[in-house]
Write the structure tokens for this entry.
Amino acid sequence: MNELVERDRAVIWHPFTQMQTAPLPIPIARAEGSVLYGTDGREYLDMISSWWVNLHGHAHPHIAERVSEQLRTLEHVIFADFTHQPAVELAERLLTILPQNQAKVFYSDNGSTAVEVALKMAFQYWHNLGRPRRKVVALENAYHGDTFGAMAVGGRSAFTAPFAPFLFDVDYLPVPTTGTESNVLERAEALLTDEVAAFIVEPLVQGAGGMNMYEPETLDKLFQLARRNGSLIIADEVMTGFGRTGQLFASDYLVEKPDLMCLSKGITGGTMALGVTACTQTIYDAFLSTDKHKTLFHGHSFTANPLACAAALASMDLLLRPETQASIQRIAKNHADFAKHLASKDTVENIRQRGTLLAFDLVAGEQTSYFNTIRDIAYNFLLDRGVLMRPLGNVLYLMPPYCTTNEQLAYTYSQVNELLMII
Ligand SMILES: *Cc1c(COP(=O)(O)O)cnc(C)c1O
């Protein structure tokens, strides 16, 4: 066994990992662009952007420079009663690219906390108005993170089963996939009553739930139904934000804009942990008072960490460059061509794409859960050929960093093609 792996085994408990049966972790020494380099010299094309966080490639010099400069200037300061340049500049710049109704930025340090903050803002909004509302409506299969509030509004599954008694009740709507829209809208009409504090969704693409995609027109209609009764709309753009879907935010495809937005993952280009919950002026105003009880009592030690904010600013510089925007469209075009090719394969179904995200189901016989083996076959086959993709059950998806070249994409597509011949 590799020495590093041996030491890992002795002391580390990995996330989402059954430590008794899991294969040994792969030690990575360094990374550059879309390529991870193992300690044994093997190369892996990172087609999942390292857990959906990387935008511009690994160890990007521009981000590295901004962060190291910040490290020598101000690495951290308490964010209650104090402020600093990177936090202010980042909030200002975020508000210029977020939907126009967004007015204030609240910092935390990951995607789950960004969701927790949005839920607490929504519940306390109604509390502060003196008209408490208790219900939340979410989509089936949703994933909003692993802390308790975030788990509660996610779809219930084997992942949440041990905690089921401790999660607050949520009403679920099915995902309005093609052909089911009118049915879902009918259910929504009944569920989205004036008791609903908030309606939370991953707009247009559900990530961890299986890369389920649905149309902006339908989401606009759902948002209108929620609005009818004043329910707050939370867009969890932790995965969809910062160009993934082909627009800067999935909400940019919509006419109805969310009241609250959750951001993380790509915000720092995948360099550091940072969470943002953005909200409208109306929500912010509901917490203003001479009565201290109306305060949002929430914060984290690393709230608005200057290093993370500096990384986010550097990532935004890169994201807004015309070359990067062109790359996003280039990847989308490559995906669309490959999708056409996939359509002729009978081992593939349910091909779907939004921007740089391409997903399809491997036709796997009767078993299709996260725990089944077609996942392991596909994962290992591709990994052996130097392509890192991590299927969600039988769902295979591509989420490359925006710097991924046409050659790297072509290589990946060819390996997927070979996989399709053996399953
Ligand atoms: C990953 C994810 C989260 C949770 O973010 P963490 O930083 O892993 O806590 C929340 N919502 C969505 C849509 C995600 O994809």
Observations:
- The chain is about 35% helix and 15% strand.
- The pocket of pyridoxal-5'-phosphate is lined by residues 110-112, 115, 143-145, 202, 207-208, 236, 238-239, 264 (CB under 6 Å).
- The chain has a mean pLDDT of 96.
